[in-house]
Amino acid sequence: MADFSKNLIVRMFDVYKAYGKTSALKGVSLEIAAGDIVFITGPSGAGKSTLLKLLYKAELASQGQILVDGLNLSRIGARQLPELRRRIGVIFQDFKLIAGRSVFDNVALVLEAAGEKPKMIEKKVMSVLRTAGIEEKARVFPPSLSGGEQQRVAVSRAVVGSPRLILADEPTASLDPQSAEQVMQLLETFHGKGATLVIATHNRRMISRLKGREIRLEGGAVGVPEDFSGEKAEEC
Questions:
Q1: Of 95, 156, 168, 191, which is least packed with CB atoms within 10 Å of its CB?
Q2: Could you cite one Gene Ontology molecular function of this protein (predicted)?
Q3: pTM score, two decimals?
Q4: Are 150 and 126 in contact (CB under 8 A)?
């Protein structure tokens, strides 16, 4: 039974997702409270990325219900989708930056879409780039940046609109250790400002450092989390 004493930002009820005859998620139910850090772990192909895509409605569930920040995703249409997206920041493993637009413009897109005034856009974008340590790169184009710098731009874009929920898909997977550490620090900073983090990752160092709750997917279903030695934790 759900605990309604908690301020739940994500609720999933018996969610299935199939691509043709292939099942990506099988009966996933979970609750995530506002302010939580939750890690989605499991082997490649377990359904981690699919779960995140369902949460920001890049994909539709085949069965079951998903509520994000009070919005029932099976009931919202195209008109309400921008409202959902304003509440969520998404960080992609491959950055998904626009090569022909500057760092500033990549981050500003989120605020422009929300109808922010130019002066406020300037203030918010430069503030978040300063926090990310890449303020001096504001007028640079993404192809000239390192992978770590590009990911910090991607994090900046995800958080600039002050979303309640940040989804990150393997945010350190393609980074060297130093860059990965910088991204972890950024995520820690924005969680400290009130954001809920849901992170799909294989990075045990990140899980240990940020001390979040772990939800392990195995074959599309929720399994038993591993402990930090790599052994499965005992069920309580």
A1: 191
A2: ATP binding
A3: 0.90
A4: no
Q: Determine the average pLDDT of the residues in 13-24.
A: 95
3-state secondary structure of 37: strand
Query: 34-46+78-222 belongs to which homologous superfamily?
Result: P-loop containing nucleotide triphosphate hydrolases (3.40.50.300)
Task: Collect contacts of 117-126 with beta carbons under 8 A, ≥24 apart.
Answer: 124/160, 125/156, 125/160
pLDDT in tens, 63-72: 999 999 999 9
Neighbours of 164 (CB within 10 A): 16
Domain locations in the chain as residue ranges: 34-46+78-222
Tens digits of residue pLDDT in 52-63 = 999 999 999 999
* Residue 187: Cβ within 10 Å count: 25
Chain centroid offset of residue 16 CA: 20
Neighbours of 35 (CB within 10 A): 14
Tell me how far apart the alpha carbons of residues 125 and 110 are, in angstroms, rounded to a whole number: 10
Number of helices and strands (H, E) in the chain? 7, 10
